[in-house]
Structure formats: C-alpha cells, structure tokens
C-alpha cells in the first residue's frame, strides 16, 4: 500500500510540516475521513472503515506547497477535503495517507457586483452574506449551503438551489477561474480560466488542489418562501413544471414531494396536510399575485408564505439531498436515487413511474433548467431491500430514457456521465503524474493509464 511510505518516513514527513497544523488523533481523523456516503447502503460497507493516516490543515498557498512537496517526495496519497457534506465518498481516502483539510483557507479575497474571488474553504453562506450587502448572490447553492465550502461545492457538487435559473455548475460561465496546485516534485500553481476550469470542475479533487476560485454572482431578488399542498400528485408536479416554464415568474427553487415524503419534514408539519403532496418554492415576492393565480389554476392550497408570516423556514434545507437526510432521520432504511427526466411538459414519464412504483420509490423532483429547457430532476426516496433491486429500478428508469446519476458509487465517472472525460484524465497526467490525488476515484486514470484493464487497483 502506498500509505506505508508515510510510516517508513514519518519523522522526515513531520519535519517537513514544521509550523503547519496536523493531527493523528483517532476520533478526529476518523471524522475527517468521512462524508455522508452512509446515505447509500451500498457505499457503507465499502467506505465505512477507510481512514487517513494524518489530517493536515494548511493556512495558505505556501503551506499547501510544502505539504504537497513532502507528499510527492515520499509518494503519499493526498485527499482534499472541504466541509465533507458530499454523499458519494468524494473526500474519503481509499488508500490512507494525508487528508488535506482546507477549512482554514477561508478568506473571501474580493467581491464586487457580479463577481467574487475566494479561497476554497470560504463558506457559501458567508459569501452570500457579503454579496447581499451589494445586492448580489451566488447563482447556485447546495442544500448544505450553511456549512458547505466553495471549493468543496465545485469539486463535488453539480447543481442545486438556483438551477432553475442558471443551470448547472458545469455550464459555461457558472465557474470562471481557479488556481490549482500540482503534485510534482516541484509543485506549481496553475491558473485556469474560461473553459479550462472544466478540467477540475466536479472532479472530486482527483486532478489538482484548488486553492482559489472566481465565481459569477447573480442579482439578488427580494426572495419569499412558500409551501403549497395538493391532494393529487400530478397536479403538484404539473404546477411545478408550469412555474418553471413561466418566464415572468422568477423562482430559484421549485421542489416537489410526493406523499409520504412531506411527513418526514418534522419542522414543517404545521404547514403540511396529511396525505397531501407538497411543493416548496423560493420566488420573487413581487410576483405574489401571479403565483397565487397559478396555484389556484392547479387547485393547490398555499399554507405558508414567508412574506406574510414574517418568518423564514429555510426551505432550501428540505430540498435536494437534504430531503433524503430528513427521510433517513425517520427511517434509516431509506435511500435515494438521482435522475433527470427528459423535457416533457406533460410529465408522462413522471406519472408512469409515480403510479408504477408507489411508495417503494417516492417521487421527489427538483425543477431545473438543462440545456435551455425546463425539466424535472428526480431525487427519489427509495425503500431499500437489496442492492439487486436497487440496480433493477435504476435499469428500468434508464430503459425508459431517464438519465441516472448513480449515488451508490464513489467512482467519478460511474456516478455521473458514465463516460470517461479525457480532458480531466489528461489534466491529471499532467499535474499528478504519480496518481497521488484521491486515488481510486477516477476510472479513466487506470483504464487510460499504464495499469489498464479497467480494474480499480486500490481495492
């Protein structure tokens, strides 16, 4: 195992880290070697015992370069960590070594209308707070926005709150520039701009250590939160689709939950009705009356509006993958899927699978903009029985033209596009020639590299 190199050169390695914070305290190392992969009963046995040998907390670029140089010298694996809010084991070290925790590199370096530059450990909530003071905000946020970091979101995320307006992090223009440290004998700091950023976007930190980012900001509206309930699920789904297609109604979140998912939202129970389906929205409060008209058109009932109740419920924290978090808090045997339905205003496939699977696969939809079209993404809550049944359900969805983003694998390509990205693999060859960055996560590295054979050499 590569991490034995650390054991063989422990004293020399620590000497190279003089003045840099690090820990080998077992409980802390265990905590910082994990994320929320336990959402998946498939990943739990694969990743549950994986641990780093040491966690290092650099303060700045110079300290990152020192850590990297020592790791390259002794061929020690490096797994970069943000806040650990991911769900696929992105920051879990498969091969021990160093977890490089960037939480202390959290400075928001510059912010102005339309643009922000920050270190990777900067909290998304803090960036938004400063941006709001000048009338702007981040375009996209995960449901973990209060704790997630900017670098972690770029390396492990893909979309979220705001995707109905701005699409995905991978869409051109949603990620402007990055500074990246290479893992070479003499580490370099590279600046990537424009399309070059796609080399490290959603790459799980497998091909470069991001130490600075530039992101676009969006104008901030006077947002209001709303909860709308429906007696019929397809009325709720079609309302959400219509709201997303209504260009004059500005919304940055449209989240649809089939019963019994609303029953898992403990904090929202005063605003939910038994056996009713719920739509959670964040919208421009100036569009209150048109929104109410649309609700009436689909025979829904508004049970909460923040602009009338003078109360904020942080509804974003009940959507996207937070929905699964709330469901599992009630029933730990629940898990989830991630999918994208083809664009279809009639939502025929949504209706088909809602009726076919019932409460085995509970429908949770996020209305998003994908390649210019409004379409539903599914984060279905699943009553787990066996891995074979889970694979059968995913296969059924795929056979009907629904894209699956498998949340039950830690392999970069297998969870998303299902294809190797030569751009990212070739960049890794350039900046990480020894394959030390988050080894075992990029299938393209061992399939396109010297190892070949398509077998993960780290497991």
From TrEMBL:
One of the Pfam families matching this protein, by short name: FAD_binding_4
PROSITE patterns: FAD_PCMH
Domain of life: Bacteria
UniProt domain FAD-binding PCMH-type: residue ranges: 47-220
InterPro entries (alphabetical): FAD-bd_PCMH (IPR016166), FAD-bd_PCMH-like_sf (IPR036318), FAD-bd_PCMH_sub2 (IPR016169), Oxid_FAD_bind_N (IPR006094)
Name the UniProt record assigns to this protein: FAD-binding oxidoreductase
